[in-house]
Each structure stands twice: as structure tokens, then as C-alpha cells.
Request: fold
Amino acid sequence: MTIKVVLEESDRINLFKSLINAASQILSDGIFSFSGDGVVLRSMDTPRVAMVDLTLKPEFFNEYDVKEPVSVKLNLQELKKILGRGQKDDLLTLQVRENDFQVLYKGSIAKQFTLPLKEFTEDEILRGGNFNFAVMAQFNVGILKEIIQDMEVAGEDVTIVAENDKLVFRHESSRGKSSATVEMEPTEDGPLRSLTISDDGVHQATYRTEYLKKFATLDSNSVSGQTTILEFQSNHPLRMSFDIIDSLSISFILAPQITDEEF
Reply:
């Protein structure tokens, strides 16, 4: 059994590194499932509070040689370190072999790294879930990341309220208060590209800023035209996804904080 995928362009390699880095903020280990449809990393963190859902289509790669479906479990912290050892203009090859996972860099120096395959059960391979969200907000790049950083100054969680044509982020604790409001504007360069509330009601939920900050690692200007999508509804999970390029999808799902008043 040998699976081989290759990335040649430095921009695509850097994007792949960013995706793995973002996933490693949440997961210590991850299961990669290779098939004719692409590569899927879909795993939950140890406390089962957050999930990473990443799909790389075959066209994301310059070469994609996967003849039969295979799933492997890897230490993402170690994989992130290895991916950081490549140099500009190096060609990156990933190979799944019988007993290990190989990362090869080919440039002025040929580098080879090997990771052991970790044991896992079939129950650990998560299927895609069907989530329904009443609120969907599409942000211009960098806006949501800045808001989350502002909320982190005051406390460990943030309450998000969606009503009419605005979103309010707020926190209140013994350390102080903070809030940020974003509204739909008629210009395209406003903070929000779109805001949809399906039932025209008011939705409110509270989430951990620690996780949101890690999700927002990808909320940067690395790709022209990138947008960040936030979806949630009252006291339900939140999903943060990134519209980067057509050949990949990446999203993070986070369980809400339930307060005493909500029981």
C-alpha cells in the first residue's frame, strides 16, 4: 500500500502548512482519510468540545495517486514541526506506506521525515454532520479575528447576539466589560458582506474565546478575496468556516457554553 500526493507551488504548500497549523491548534492527533474524492481530516478534540472538518480535493494537489481508500492517524503536533522544515521553492511529497507516513522535501537539499502511524478504531472516523443554523454572517477578511482578540481582553467567553441587521459580541465579568457591534453597510468594504437570520428572530449564544481565537488563525490576508463565515443559533453549536479556494473546504465547530439561566 502506497499513497502519494505532491504539491509543487510555494503558495499552495504554504496554504497547506497553514491548514495543518490551524488544525493542530485544536487537535493533538488527527485521522486523514484518503479516497478518490480527496483527503478528509475530520476529528474532535479530547474534551469533545470542538471539531475540525477539512477536505482537500484531488485538484488541490499537483499529483494525486490514491488507488484505494485508506485512513491513517497522525500526531499533528509532529506533522506541523516537520512541515516547517521546508524551504522556499521546495517540492513537497506526502506518502502513506505500509507502516509509516513520509514527508519528503525536494530542493537544494533533499529531506525525508517519517512519522509512525497511530492505532485507531473505526468509531473514531467521523462522518459529516448535518447542522442547521439560523444565523449566517459573512465577514471580510481579518474582521472576525480582530473582534475575537478584543473580546479575549476582558474574559474567557463571548456572547454573540444576532438581531435585525447587526451582530453584537459582548463579555462581562469581574475583570470588566467589552463589546463590539458590526452592522450591514451598503458598501462592499464594510465589515460584513452579508448577514442572514432565517427566522427573523433574536439569537444569542455564548462560546469560549480560547477556541474562537484558535479557529481564527486562518482569518488572514493570505489569499485574495478570502472571506470568513460564522454560523450559529441560540444555545447551539457554532461553525466558523473559511472561503479560500474552490479545491478545499475548512470549518471548525464549537459547542456552546451553557449558563445556569438556560437550564
The CA atoms of residues 2 and 97 lie 5 Å apart. The chain has four helices and 18 strands.
